[in-house]
Design goal:
Radius of gyration: 25 Å
Structural class: alpha/beta
CATH superfamily of the largest domain: Argininosuccinate synthetase, chain A, domain 2
Distance between the termini: 87 Å
Helix content: 40-55%
Oligomer: single chain
Number of strands: 14
Length: 397
């Protein structure tokens, strides 16, 4: 009896070829597994396609609310951005997909797990660090590091040989990855950082030029750093991001063309659509500006890049990420309130923010008479802070 392997399966070029390769070249009984994390129509017909390609079973798991609540929201509370541009939409999905893959492997008594990440990419690291953290006994099959198919052109030939229908063509050779938080595009025509992307590539957003001439004004409510309402209406974690994707996409919000440093040491270009995430990031920053203590905010900003690198590099289940998460979550307890935003032709413009936890004191900040602040108090403060500068200058003379 053949051993079972659970394959993280999307139905795209790579995993379709891998499914057949695991079966024909390695002799596995393949269980195809797809995580529903907001791909929407991309999941249509996936079980039948997997079985037609040779899978003995196809499991589709609805992880949408878990993805939003337990992965995206914690990352948002930390304000994580990788290398100042990338909102980590692909990175944050991998630990959840791999966690569920381990669960299925246990349930199906599989001895191995497999993924479609290439030997040059980040995803192989993210998947396999999660497997190591949660199920070090499982064998990992990484076809891109083992087979002799060296390019996507050769994959297309393999697919044609085995009559596997795939969505990638020579006319549209880039690959994409979609989930609730974003869509990424890379490879093919995008590999040169000089090449301009084509407008028909995008699925979530209109171009800013084609966005409405009238701005959209919305209010987002937060509780302990998590978004909970849009214009006063409460939404579940999944649905609030999904709704903001719709609103942001219509206004051309959330496109980013990024050249990033991969964990494998090379630079890579990715083009991203993250409409809802971009709106939430700007809204949260605005609310934190009145609800977080200055030094708490400074510590969070100093630690955030390190936290973002942990997510990017696949260390979601590492103790250091969990340690920082507890700090960020504690800091987010006061991030409660409402932010008013104007969305206009690719821009997110903050119009106002309010909170019962606001540290902004108008009677201190005002330029009018009657302020609590005594201007004379600044004299001694300046003298003390200037003392070391005066001493340094006197020694130089």
């Amino acid at each position: 009896m053949a051993q079972k392997v659970v394959l993280a399966y999307s139905g795209g070029l790579d995993t379709s070829v891998i499914l057949k390769w695991l079966q024909t070249e390695r002799g596995y009984d393949v269980i195809a597994y797809a995580a529903d994390i907001g791909q929407k129509e991309e999941l249509g017909g996936l079980p039948q396609k997997a079985k037609n390609t040779g899978a003995i079973k196809c499991v589709v798991c609805d992880l949408r609310e878990e993805f939003a609540r337990d992965f995206i929201f914690p990352m948002l509370r930390a304000g994580a951005i990788y290398e100042e541009r990338y909102l980590l939409g692909t990175s944050i999905a991998r630990p959840l997909i791999a966690k569920e893959q381990v669960r299925i492997a246990r349930k199906e008594h599989a001895k191995a797990v497999s993924h479609g990440a290439t030997g040059k990419g980040n995803d192989q690291v993210r998947f396999e660090l999660t497997f190591a953290a949660l199920a070090p006994d499982l064998q990992v099959v990484a076809p891109w590091r083992e087979w002799d198919l060296g390019s996507r052109t050769e994959l297309l030939a393999f697919a044609k040989k085995h009559a596997i229908p795939v969505p990638v063509t020579a006319k549209k050779p880039y690959s994409s990855d979609r989930n609730l938080f974003h869509i990424s595009y890379e490879g093919g025509v995008l590999e040169s950082p000089w090449n301009e992307y084509k407008e028909d590539m995008f699925l979530l957003t209109v171009s800013p030029e084609k966005a409405p001439n009238k701005p959209t004004v919305i209010e987002i409510g937060f509780s302990a750093g998590n978004p909970v309402t849009i214009n006063g209406k409460k939404y579940s974690p999944y649905n609030i991001i999904d709704k903001l994707n719709e609103i942001g996409g219509k206004n051309g919000i959330g496109r980013a063309d990024v050249v990033e440093n991969r964990v494998t040491g090379m630079k890579s270009r990715g083009v991203y659509e993250t409409p809802g995430g971009t709106i939430l990031h700007e809204a949260r920053v605005a609310l934190e500006s009145i609800t977080q203590d200055a030094e708490v905010a400074n510590i969070r900003r100093e630690l955030m890049p390190r936290y973002a690198r942990m997510i990017y590099a696949g260390y979601w289940y590492a103790p250091e990420r969990l340690l920082l998460q507890s700090l960020f979550d504690d800091a987010a307890k006061t991030v409660n309130g409402v932010v008013k935003l104007k969305l206009y032709k690719g821009n997110v413009i903050v119009m106002g923010r309010k909170s019962d936890n606001s540290l902004y004191a108008e009677n201190v900040s005002t330029f009018e008479r009657g302020s609590m602040y005594d201007h004379a108090d600044a004299t001694g403060f300046i003298r003390l802070n200037a003392l070391r500068l005066k001493i340094r200058r006197l020694l130089q003379k």
